[in-house]
Design goal:
Helix content is about 15%, strand content about 40%. It is of the alpha+beta class.
């Protein structure tokens, strides 16, 4: 009888609003972890499917507060996305143009970590946050504030300490972009020069982001 009562209690507990509190607790761990970081470096693999495209690209990500980010692609070599705190720059070798967008107007899926460049408040950035166990990790999911018309869900796979391992973005048109991170190094020395973009000679600067 006691075992039966215990089993019923466990089932009731799992079905209760405790999961919402778990999401809150883990989101606070993510906030606390990244709010104490000044810089971040990791290798990434970016997988995109949608519009008949299925591709994987790799490279190195650098973050530095306040508001700076650099995605350097190894494959394809030379592709670059830089957020210098004022503008976002996107360039692919061989292109005749480089795209530039004011940081405040940025709506680009290559920079899903941009909310970590200020004072992180994950539950404000992802209203309706939910949590799902994922092996030894957990997946936090919600819809990015202000991107409801474009994003169906943004999921963060994090470990128990609140460190992000993977990011998955599902767009309303069915396209999916996923970033997996390895070789993570935190608070490493990063020069400000890494976030300064100089357009190659003869390359025109145009305003607005290119298609994904």
């Amino acid at each position: 009888m006691r075992r039966t009562i215990l089993a019923i209690a466990v089932i009731a507990l799992l079905a209760s609003p405790l999961h919402a509190q778990d999401a809150h607790t883990l989101a606070q761990k993510v906030d606390a972890h990244y709010n104490h970081l000044q810089s971040f470096q990791a290798e990434y693999a970016e997988h995109y499917t949608g519009m008949g495209i299925d591709r994987t690209e790799t490279g190195t990500l650098l973050l530095k507060k306040p508001g700076r980010m650099r995605w350097s692609y190894n494959e394809p070599a030379g592709k670059l996305f830089v957020l210098d705190g004022k503008f976002a720059w996107f360039y692919t070798p061989g292109d005749a143009q480089v795209s530039r967008t004011p940081a405040k107007q940025l709506d680009d899926l290559r920079s899903p970590l941009r909310f970590l460049l200020g004072h992180t408040q994950l539950e404000k950035e992802l209203p309706g946050l939910t949590i799902t166990p994922d092996g030894s990790n957990f997946t936090l999911a919600g819809v990015p504030k202000g991107m409801e018309q474009r994003i169906h869900a943004l999921s963060l796979t994090v470990n128990a300490d609140g460190v992000i391992q993977r990011i998955r973005l599902e767009e309303t048109d069915g396209a999916v972009t996923e970033f997996a991170f390895t070789s993570i190094h935190e608070n490493v020395p990063v020069s400000d020069a890494e976030f300064t973009f100089h357009a190659p000679e003869g390359v025109e600067i145009v305003d607005g982001m290119p298609p994904i």
